[in-house]
Write a structure and sequence with these properties.
By secondary structure, the chain is mainly alpha-helical. It has one domain. The protein is about 80% helix and about 0% strand. It has 4 helices and no strands. The chain is flat and about 50 Å long. The chain starts with a helix and ends with a helix. About 20% of the residues are buried.
């Protein structure tokens, strides 16, 4: 059950961080304005909070593993919202990142 909670928190963190960064990007690069930028900043703050809810107590481990989730989530976000189409090397790299997440977070430890 802790693994499922952890995965759900990683997904929520990715939505907050990637979504927040995307909102800031849209506000600045696409000239959508301060409401977009401010919304992005709030979402980025939520990401920082969600990361603290992970069951594992080690900051470094959580953020290292989240890096792999961020890679996969960023490619998925770009595909869903920006029309980006990952090539096979993007997909292979993302799968390698997910394997790293699994080893870092869910390998049996004493």
């Amino acid at each position: 059950m802790l693994v499922l909670k952890s995965i759900a928190l990683f997904v929520l963190a990715a939505l907050a961080e990637i979504g927040g960064a995307w909102l800031v990007w849209q506000g600045v690069r696409e000239h959508r304005g301060w409401i977009w930028i401010g919304s992005g900043i709030i979402a980025l703050g939520l990401y920082g909070f969600v990361a603290t809810l992970q069951p594992d107590p080690h900051f470094g481990r959580i953020l290292a593993a989240y890096g792999g989730v961020f890679v996969v989530g960023s490619l998925a976000w770009g595909t869903a919202l920006d029309g980006y189409r990952p090539d096979r090397y993007d997909i292979i790299g993302a799968l390698i990142c997910l394997a790293g997440v699994a080893v870092i977070m869910y390998a049996p430890r004493r």
